[in-house]
Structures are given as C-alpha cells and as structure tokens.
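User: Structure with 3R-hydroxydecanoyl-coenzyme A, tokens only please.
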Amino acid sequence: MDQLRFDGRVAVVTGAGGGLGKAYALLLGSRGAKVVVNDLGSGRDGSGKSNFADAVVKEIKDKGGVAVADYNSVVEGEKIIKTAIDNFGRIDILINNAGILRDKSFTKMSEQDWDLIHAVHLKGAFKTTHAAWETFRKQKYGRIIMTSSNAGLFGNFGQANYSAAKLGLVGLANTLALEGAKYNIKVNTIVPTAASRLTEDILPPEMFQAMKPELIAPVVAYMVHESFEDSGAVIDSTLGFATKTHLVRSNGAPLKKKPSDEVTIESVKESWSKVVNMNGAKHLQKIADVTLDLVDKLQEFEERSKLDSERDSYWTTYAYNAKDLVIYALGVGASVSNASDLKFLYESHEEFSPLPTFFILAGMCMEAPVVQNAMPPGKHADFTNILHGEQYIEFVGDFPGTEGAFTTRCYVVDILDKGSSAVAIVNSEIYQNKQLICRTQQHIFVLGQGGFGGPRNSKLAVGVENAPKRAPDAVVEQRTAEDQAAVYRMSGDLNPLHIDPNVATASGHQKPILHGLASLGFSARHVLAKYSNNDASNVKALKARFVKPVLPGQTLVTEMWVEGNRVHFQTKVKESGNAVIAGAYMDLKKVSSGGAPAAAAPASSGGALKSDALFAKIQEEVKKNAAKAKAVNGVFVYNITENGKNVKQWTLDLKTPEVYNGAPKSGKADTTMTISDEDLVQVAAGTLNPQVAYMKGKLKIAGNLMLAQKLGPLLKSEAKM
Ligand SMILES: CCCCCCC[C@@H](O)CC(=O)SCCNC(=O)CCNC(=O)[C@H](O)C(C)(C)COP(=O)(O)OP(=O)(O)OC[C@H]1O[C@@H](n2cnc3c(N)ncnc32)[C@H](O)[C@@H]1OP(=O)(O)O
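Assistant:
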C-alpha cells in the first residue's frame, strides 16, 4: 500500500507536549503535515509550567519536519487556531487531546474540581473546534478528533467530573459529525488507553510500559487522513488493538395492553422485562431513525391491539435459515439417497428450497401458553395430556425464501367438548415484513379434559375431507428411522413424549411416539414429489388429521388420489395396517402427474419408463455434441435399473462418439454410472439437474476424476431434450 501522507496539511494537536499528543504530533510531522504543537506545559492536575512543546517541535524539525510550539490554554482555543493560521496560512486537522485530572470521590468533589475539568475537556474542545469550524466549512475540508475515555463510556469511581466531560465529548462529536457532513468535515472520537502523564501512577508498571502511545498514534493519524470516510465513530484503541463502540437500543415494549389503557406504575413494572430485553437490540444511525422506529412500533401496537381486541392473542417471532431447512428436511425423511430430495438438503443446490410443511413450525407457538390459558375453569393442558390432533396450513402471500423471519399471531378460536376429552382449535397468522404469508390451524387434543359443557363442533374449524372410495392413484412407502423423532425434535418441538421413554409410558404409549408433524412431513413430501414435481411454491394448502400414533422405525405408506387440483391422501403404517393420517389433502396450483419419486424405495413408481425412446434421444444428443464428446474422450457405462435391479446397460463411447445399447463394442469402460430409471426420466424431462443425478448415481471412476467432471456439461445438454 502507498504510504499515507499529509503533505500540504496543517494539523493542530492540543496537549502535545508529551504522551499521546506528542506521539500524534511526531507521526503527523514525519508524514508531511505542518504541526502546531500545543501544550500548556502543566502537570496532570493543571498546575506548574514547562516547555515540553519546544522539545517536541525540535524533534519534528530534527527529522526534517515543520512544526511550531503553542503555549495557549485550550480554554482560549481561538488563540491556538490563530497560531496555525498565522504560521501556516491554513488548518486541516484538529486533534483535541489536551486534558487534566482532578479525581475525587463525589462526596469530596468541589464545584471547582467540576468546573476545571469541564473547562479543559469539554469547553476547551468546543473553543478550538469552534475557532476552526468556519475555516473547515469554507474550504470544505476538516478532520477533527475528540478524545473520550472508557471512564465516560462506562463510569469510573472517583471520576464523576471527568466521566461527565468525556461522555459530553461523544455527544459533541455526534452532532458535529451531522453538521459537518455536507462540508466534508469528519468528526470522530478516540477512546485511548495509553501510558501518559495522566495514567503514569495509576496503571501497574508492566502494563504502563506496554501501553505505548505510539501504538495508538497510527489509529488517530488514519482517522484524520483525507482517505478516512467515517464520521461520528467512537474508536477505542490500546496495545495495538482497536474496536468500535456504539449505542444499541432494545426492541422495547408497549407499557400497556390496549391503546385505550392508562400507563400505570404497575403496567410499567409488568412490561419491564421486555423493555430491558436486549435480544435483537439495534444500533440506530440517526435521531430520525429513533423517531421512525418509535412510530413504527406504535403503529404495530395499534394494529395488534385491534386484532387482540377480537381475541386474546400471543405474538411470537420465528427466524430461520438454510441450516434450519436442512435439519427439518432430514426430520421428515428427505434423504440424499433420493436425488430429487437434494434440493431440500443442500444449501448450494441451484433449486434449494424449503419444504412447504416447514412453515407450519412458525405457527406452532410452542413457547406461548396459548392452549393452557384458554382452557375452561378446572381444566388444564400441558405436555402430559396433549396430542396433536389436526393440522392445516394455507399459503396466502409469496412463497417464503430460504431464510427469513416471521412474526406470528396465535390465538385459540374454540375449545370443543368431545365428552371425555377437549379439543383446542388454535389459529396462527404468520407475517413477514407485515405481509401475511400463511395461516395455520392446529387442533390440539387434550386428553381427559372434556365434560365442561362446551360446544362439540366449531364453524371456525377447517374440516378434514374423506378420500375417494376407489383404489389410490399412487402409493409411496418409506420407512421412518429409529431416530426419526430424535432428529425431528431439532426443528423445535422438544415435547419429551417423543424422546423420553418414561414420559411416553406414563402417557400410555409403549415407547416415545413420532411427532404428528414428522409423519405429516413424510406424506406431504410424497405428495409433493408425486404431483408437484417437488415444487414447494406450487402448494396452496394442506390439511390432515392424526388418527393414531406412529412409532419411530415404522414404515409409512402414503396413498394418494387426484381430484382436480386437490390431492387427497391418507397414511397407513405398513407393519400394523393402521391408518395414522386420515382425511388429508394437499391443494396445488397445478397438478403434475407421475412426478418425481419421493421415497428411496417407492412401492409403485406409477407409469412405465420409455427408456428406448430416451436412448434414441440421448444417441441423437451425443451425435449433436460430437465435437464435445470427442474432447471428453471416455467410455461410460450406464446401468439402467428398475426396482434396484440392473435391467439394461447403455454404453456411451465418446471416443467414437456413439451410444451402444448393451455392452461396449470396444474398449473398457472408463466410468460406470448407475442412475435409476426414474432419475434418468427426470434428467430427460429437465426436472432433475444431471449433475445431481450424477452425484447420486454411485459413480465408480475407473478413469480419472477430470474425465468424470467433463461429462457434466454433456449431460446438461441432454437435459434440454
Ligand atoms: C400450542 C402448543 C401446541 C403443541 C402441539 C403439539 C405438540 C406435539 O409434540 C404433540 C404430538 O405430536 S402428538 C403425536 C401426534 N398425534 C397423535 O399421535 C394422535 C393420534 N390420534 C389419536 O391417538 C386419536 O385420534 C385421539 C386419541 C386423538 C382421539 O381418539 P379417540 O379418543 O378414540 O377419539 P374418537 O372416539 O375417535 O373421537 C372422539 C371425538 O374426537 C374427534 N377426534 C378424534 N380424533 C381427533 C383428532 N385427531 N383431532 C381432532 N379431533 C379428533 C372425533 O371427531 C370425535 O368427535 P365427534 O364425536 O364430535 O365426531
């Protein structure tokens, strides 16, 4: 990097007779600046006289620099600035560094102690800066440094006067940064901790030795260089280390429940934990942002209150990223052994997507006592007596992306009395940037808590739909893993019923049961793959009832029926024959028939494969791409499999280039690629990235890896067929 220089610039450094100020003056002087070395020449309490400034000037001059000494007090700051103008005709840089201490505990602090400190630090900085300000404005250039202290930012015993003045300087810099912005005047604050006359007998000797002002001087010099762009920054530096400090604001909280309520001391106490909760605290750049933030929050409060006045609601937030999507997909049985699942498992996949059922999680409001607080008198609900009964999700706005944050409103719309048990119907509205993205509805079955004389049915319940009587149009089966619930829990539902054998047996189950939403996630994936080409954004709504628990390790069999844009489905456990999900459906914007297989080993893939026609197409493509093929120059063998068995073998001899139906005519295969028929169909249909099929197909490389990689582009062109 080119040396950062200050040629042609005039710098005033106050308190430059020793310590930090001296280090700043020497460094700037050595880099071409003409320096006014100001120093009153007093001890650290402001008493005594010396000629330190002359010594510094001499040192600068001895090294070929230009400098002049100034012995005025900063309280008469205009005289110091005059020294610069009189000697050098201009001023570009002002470093307000001069300072003294009058440390005393507050009890012993006199008004004089207070005034003297404020006069030197705060008023002194005001006087010098004010004197230079007009020149800076006129020449549209100025670099100003205020010197603050951690004593000001955090407080320090015995330094009430000094702390107040030091934080005052941050306030001064903040405002001057704004007022100077359009004149290219940058005003920043340094918070140095260095060995100086101020700290000499306060710091332990070893630390005092190490805290060299020379380690801070380059930071300050950079902050007054013409290339420095920040303004209003507070930079803490010591021991060759620098950090930025700024204020942050909590999200805050309304101090009342409804806009019409009074704010009382009690309501303030009730809200206090939210007021001081710093989770998600933000740094606001300017005072206008503070006002906007407040207006925004008040508007949100009004809007929420309108909704809350209809029903008592709980508001929660839910943030997710790619990792959450992948963990969820694993929890609902997506597997790399099925190439079409990769888009749900691999964050760098070109079609990486959330599964549609993932967004049910944002509506769960697991942390809120939403059901508990809505139970009729004498009835209770907690994790020991609830079962997930039904689930609904409907997408209203744009399909959400692969990361985001939602605000969710959760409220109970009805508590039904089903005789011995109760059913709580919980609605959720899920918003992103104030836009409604989706709605969900959960039916929570509360065992043994019925009989309170409530309604048996609700008009507000989204109903289940019986499947057609005919044989299913498609069936997909997939075994859940023994650890399925343990994986699914990581998406947020930590109900011990799904992991703790004692809790499970106490609730009457032989072992921990699978989350209802995990089983639903499996079946929804099967439908999505079969009838929506795995396109999650094609889903409009989904409804299901959990009719019997599923045990991890059991095999789920999803039966599907297409009726218009609705795919009815129900799910059975293969081992017991029991229906576990019933009355379920997925509404799609568009139904695509015979789509991708969802499970690793589908029971019925639906529709015969036209591999011969496909073979002809690939042959044509290879001929079309003969030049490329020759460049690849390899022999590849495709094993065509059906239900796990090799049924056919094609050889792609790119040396020739030709495709053979059967064993290679000549030469040995360089690469053997096993792609299932289904994947090959998808590649041909352009719905499966050939590279993905390629990765999934157990690629055995007999030649070299480069060769295998070169095959990628060729397969890509085949995908366009
Ligand atoms: C806000 C916080 C939320 C927390 C969310 C959840 C946290 C999760 O960790 C919890 C889970 O995932 S639990 C696991 C998944 N769920 C299950 O396994 C439940 C399976 N279902 C059953 O066992 C029975 O259906 C059973 C036991 C539910 C009902 O069986 P029965 O008692 O035999 O009922 P039945 O006699 O057939 O019918 C009685 C009335 O109830 C209605 N009904 C039946 N099943 C229902 C169900 N699943 N959901 C809603 N209502 C249901 C019936 O229609 C009937 O009403 P009516 O007589 O008016 O027709």
